[in-house]
Amino acid sequence: NPLKTSTTMDGHAEPSPNSVAEPLSELTLDSPVAASPTDRHPKKQYRPKASSLPTSLVRTITLGDETADGYKPTTLILQLFSDRIFLSITQLNGKMGSLLVCNVEESIIDNSTTYNVRTLLGTGTAGGTTNPDQEIALREVYVRRIAERMVIHARKVAGVGANTILGGAEDGSGPIPPLVVGLGLRPKVKRSVDDFNKIVDTALKLYEEGWVVSHGGGMVGMEGPD
Fold first, then answer.
1. Kind of pairing, strands 112-121 and 85-90?
2. Which distant-in-sequence residues (6+ apart) come within 8 Å of 119 by Cβ?
3. Are 87 and 76 in contact (CB under 8 A)?
4. What is the C-alpha end-to-end distance of the chain, expressed in Å?
5. How confident is the model at residue 220 (pLDDT cuts 50, 70, 90)?
6. Mean pLDDT in the chain?
7. Less crowded by CB within 10 Å, the N or C end of the chain?
8. Which of the 8 DSSP states describes residue 48?
């Protein structure tokens, strides 16, 4: 249905109360949105192609210390892009917290795997901590351990052993794309080994599910994470 318009005193076109806009789902990249006949620059609306959207999954878990009043559950959000893996782990009502990245490299010379973890934004110590260096190191351990599990998964689906490198690409890319992790962990909270393992295990399960979706035609045209 064409968009009905009325003209104000200053000459601008406004939609009438009974106007109906063209559904976004029916628009293509070249479909102009109907406008006033006097508008020399017709407006256009766009909708993204399915192939440009990342595979996205969300999971919420409860850790051992989150049964007390006032504690929020831990939420994990995974997004698989064609050239990045993004993972958010937050206990701060959806806030991302510090942002870290891990690049994985393999060498066919000495059959080694190198995990380069660095902080992009924030240190996780703004809320106050008795040992800032320990807090920063803990966050790097989280990211490295998750990356290690993802690399093992990549080798598994490639049909090789967990300790067998995939050869190392000439372009410098590793067995998995760069892993970007947002860590919004509660400050001043003692974390147990069980909580650490539960977060890592959940992150890997989420990644495995997302990998199946992106490789199994769940989203048309979506490239896999590795």
1. unpaired
2. 98, 99, 100, 136, 139, 140
3. yes
4. 45
5. very low
6. 76
7. N
8. -
> Closest Cα to residue 194, out of 74, 77, 83?
74
97 contacts 183 by C-beta, under 8 angstroms:
yes
The model's pTM: 0.70
Cα distance between residue 225 and residue 214, in whole Å: 8
User: Is residue 13 a contact partner of residue 38, using CB atoms and an 8 Å limit?
Assistant: yes
* Measured CA distances, 112 to 38, 109, 226 (Å): 67, 8, 19
pLDDT digits (tens, 9 = 90+) for 36-53: 566 666 666 667 666 677
Q: Which range, 30-44, 136-150, 153-167, is most confident?
A: 136-150
Separation between Cα atoms, residue 86 and residue 65, nearest integer Å: 26
Q: What is residue 107's predicted lDDT score, i.e. its pLDDT?
A: 84
Q: Nearest Cα to 183, choosing from 117, 127, 122, 116?
A: 122
* Ramachandran area for residue 186 (φ above 0: left; ψ -120 to 50: alpha; else beta): beta
| Residue 46 or residue 85, greater confidence | 85
**Distance separating alpha carbons of residues 96 and 105, to the nearest angstrom:** 26
Is the Cβ–Cβ distance between 128 and 186 less than 8 Å? no
Residue 76 pLDDT class (50, 70, 90 cuts): very high
Decide: 182 and 88 in contact? Cβ < 8 Å.
yes
Sheet holding 55-61, edge to edge: 55-61, 74-80, 85-90, 179-184, 98-107, 112-121
d(CA 200, CA 148): 10
Burial classification of residue 203, based on how many CB atoms lie within 10 Å of its CB (0-12 exposed, 13-18 middle, 19 or more buried): buried
